[in-house]
Amino acid sequence: MKAFSYSFTFYCLLGLILLATTDGLAQVESSDSLLSPLLPPSEVIAEDHPGDAGAAIIVRWKLSPDEDRGVTGYEIVRSTSPTGEFSSIGFAAAGSNRYVDANTEDSLTYYYKVLAIDVDKNVSESELSPPARSSPQWFNFHLLNLLIIGGLICGAVIYFIAHAKKGKKLFLRKIAGLEAVDEAIGRATEMGRPILFIPGILDMDDVQTIAAITILGRVAKTIAQYDTKLNVPTSRSIVMSTAMETVKEAYISAGRADAYSDDFVHYVTDEQFGYVAAVNGIMVRERPATCFYIGAFFAESLIMAETGNAIGAIQIAGTAMPAQLPFFVAACDYTLIGEELFAASAYLSGEPKQLGSLKGQDVGKIIAMSAIVIGALLETFFAISGSSFFGSLAELVHKLFSIVAS
After folding, report:
1. CA-CA distances (angstroms) from residue 154 to 158, 303, 316, 364, 372?
2. I need a labelling partner for 124 at 20 to 30 A (CA). Which of 102, 175, 193, 368 fits?
């Protein structure tokens, strides 16, 4: 019985010793794991940023193996000497493995290190990167798609300009507002009432005003043939001089130089609402049968268009000012929206260079719309079927026609 008691006591003590030893080892292992150093990022590579004008180096690295142990980010430091003092140039978030240093000098060589930082502010430094130097490149091959599209559009423009210069007729899309010009002038002639033409309220340095003067030349030529009175109030002195010469040339071209009068074009004032008040007064007193509002407009657009609508005039408007388009659409019979204003100047002028440019731009739009439709269909088929074939084709279309390079 005593032997059994001694044996039982011995084994109990042995078990307690083993248990204590195991707990101690576990605590040591746990402590060691807590105290183990933060592993640094590796394979740091620095090289010239491709496809740019220089002054930029891209730094890449392999993430720290302790990324899941609370790494909060990476600090990038650089120096112009491998043994020199390194200074911080930026930070990258956890999970990031690249950084673009956009503040370099092309004549200097740079060395980089990447420091992993965890939640406890522990820092682990990588090995030194190979030397890197930034330099400008002649071509950015990431934007090759833009070169292809630009080449196609420019080629189309050159082709159609040459085509128009040979006297061949170009088919242009119909613009309702332009189709109605002759009708509107004819109506004014039949009614024996004048035609009012407003070339916007900005000066000749605005492209919309230039387009308006071009359209005025075509309108004035038709008016000269119909022997109808024209009234062109302007809000800028240079616009007045330009419009006067344009109208005079139109009358000479129509063989009606004797019918031209300098009173057709006159200056009112540079002040916005003073000009609007004067134009409204002309509308109410002379009651023109047709009103043209072509050019750049602001708050005065609705005031003039409503007055013209109240006197029963046919109104044709055109502007590239998005905020004013709704007012013209609501109050006018015809509206040239945005780019149609510039297309109209080419459409009416009949000048080969303008017609060829317009036709070439239409080809560019067809290419863009086709790419959008084809890309959308391929992406749809890929999503439905899961076939890698459609996915590859969609990626190819994206690379060729995407406006923004990846």
Report:
1. 6, 41, 32, 9, 20
2. 102
